[in-house]
Write a structure and sequence with these properties.
about 100 residues; 4 helices
């Protein structure tokens, strides 16, 4: 098992790990963009969606994926978006909304 001292949202081929994008930078940029786009019809909610959309990138499985050979990324995928949906459902939505049981 790999122990990570930092997490990354995106690796950048040919650049050292210290120059890769941090999840918090990625999430804040996505939140800012979503808020600008949806401010007229969903103020606040779009920002939350942007902040939550890639929360799963903090998982060890995603960190192993992002640190792997970029050429292998075409062959494998790691679910990193469901975590944000679970945060939204558990935090703000009635228990039965959005669930298929």
């Amino acid at each position: 098992m790999v122990i990570w001292h930092a997490c990354y949202a995106h690796s950048l081929k040919g650049l050292p790990r210290e120059e890769w994008q941090l999840p918090e930078d990625h999430l804040i940029a996505a939140a800012d963009l979503a808020e600008r786009f949806a401010n007229s019809f969903a103020p606040g909610w779009a920002r939350l969606a942007g902040l939550w959309h890639d929360a799963g990138k903090y998982q060890p499985s995603f960190q192993n994926y992002v640190a792997s050979d970029p050429d292998a990324h075409v062959k494998q995928k790691v679910d990193h978006s469901s975590a944000g949906a679970l945060i939204a459902i558990s935090s703000y939505v009635a228990p039965r909304v959005g669930r298929v049981d």
